């Protein structure tokens, strides 16, 4: 469904992403992991159209969308969440979700009905008529997912949707993510919580210092020496191997 081909993004003298490539099959949950500052959110920005790449291409269902604006990509069926959740505090939860629903449903009654259905789908049914400002961190994360889902995407980009949640909240939201995929939405997710990545993702891509250093099934990727060194530093893979041999 999505193919990223050798994307590079330069910010003056800084190369944030360098010739990164990945593929996301339709119907999958695919992970994008890497240490802080690796360029993951910058890559999401280029996929969703909020940033223009310096070079490389983005293909959606075989069509080159590299130069398209974000709203045109949204119409194609690409939606994203943002790492920093910023709901419209003066609106209710349902009204926040309806902002996304207007993309497909210009009539207010239809947009609100769609918003309420999406809110219930992500576990916000009891909060729909409350101010968005009253939501907990977990509720705000669900609202961010709901606003993106309300656009009726076929590809959903989740940017650290589990960040800031406690173990119980993470456990509760994992089935929501699986259900979204099971209902026909392909997912590409940035995540730092490896337990969730191992549980949800069929394939994982690893970005480090702007470069794609590994791709494959989660368990294989997590055992890759290049990935261990990206997270723990140079020589870490050899040290861990020596410690395992001594044990």
UniProtKB/TrEMBL annotation:
- Per its UniProt record, what SUPFAM superfamilies does this chain match? P-loop containing nucleoside triphosphate hydrolases
Describe the location of the ABC transporter domain by residue ranges: 2-234
* Keyword terms: ATP-binding, Nucleotide-binding, Transport
Q: Which Pfam families match?
A: ABC_tran, BCA_ABC_TP_C
Keyword set includes Zinc? no
For molecular function, the Gene Ontology terms on record are: ATP binding
* Keyword Transport carried by entry: yes
Domain of life the protein comes from: Bacteria
Protein name stated in the entry: Lipopolysaccharide export system ATP-binding protein LptB
